[in-house]
Amino acid sequence: MMLLLSGRALTAGAVAVATLVTGGSAAGAATAPAPAPAPAQPAVGATAAAAPDIPIANVKAHLSQLQSIATANGGNRAHGRAGYQASLDYVKAKLDAAGFTTRVQQFTASGRTGYNLIADWPGGDANQVVMAGSHLDSVTSGPGINDNGSGSSAVLETALAVARSGYQPTKHLRFAWWGAEELGLVGSRYYVNSLGSAERAKISGYLNFDMIGSPNPGYFVYDDDPTIEKTFKDYYAGLGISTEIETEGDGRSDHAPFKNAGVPVGGLFSGADYRKTSAQAAKWGGTVGQPFDRCYHSSCDTTANIDDTALDRNSDAIAYAVWELSQ
After folding, report:
1. Is 229 a catalytic residue?
2. Which of 49, 105, 148, 221 has its CA 20 to 30 A from that of 79?
3. How confident is the model at residue 1 (pLDDT cuts 50, 70, 90)?
């Protein structure tokens, strides 16, 4: 999630003409995550049983790879750096092997080349597109495992679950990993602006996941689109978990360009540098008076900076929403 600081917005002309690159890419060597167990999901509605459980071990395996990439590349995965390129190559290789149609969208920001990764699952009504996305870049000061390896890994594993299950939804599914979010939502804004009005109108919903494994977690749901909001709230109600409306990151992540273009948006968030209140700790546990993520935008945002329970619940919620909204 980008910092909310004056002067962070890019000046006009910071983003250059982009090209779309298709085909294979070099991926970091990694052991494939273990196959998913048989689908199992809380009884929160008839459609819920169709959505698979997202194995937390698989999501954490992706996080471990992103950590290794950062460690090998100066401690970060930031825009225009080798760590970001390696992260994109890792995600793309997984999707290509699973049968997705992938494309890389190139742009320029702050004098460096950036990339978005877009992955389409074949089939479904191309006039009704459900998108799920997350930003893949970190800040330069750390590896960005919660912000936003957590969202990126959960979206990746949800996409791979689509492929494993052979899911054929009524609507078309598209997944995205954005570059240069930390510079002011550059990648997602570029993507939205690259679409004509007719193409934007085909997106029936964009789901955003930015920081979903905070170590002192909250359970926050975007309140932008009522249908998407209800989908997530229904899921958590089935788990007996009370949610709150997300306000800390409002306008600070990649849903904002979609919302500004009139696309229905929603998403989940587990908290950044706001501090947990006593009422929130009573609902969710954790430490009163401490930030939801004390390592936000810091070098300590490593694989040790993840709450497994929050990551697991939020990953399953992503799959539930993707299945529910694409029927």
Report:
1. no
2. 221
3. confident
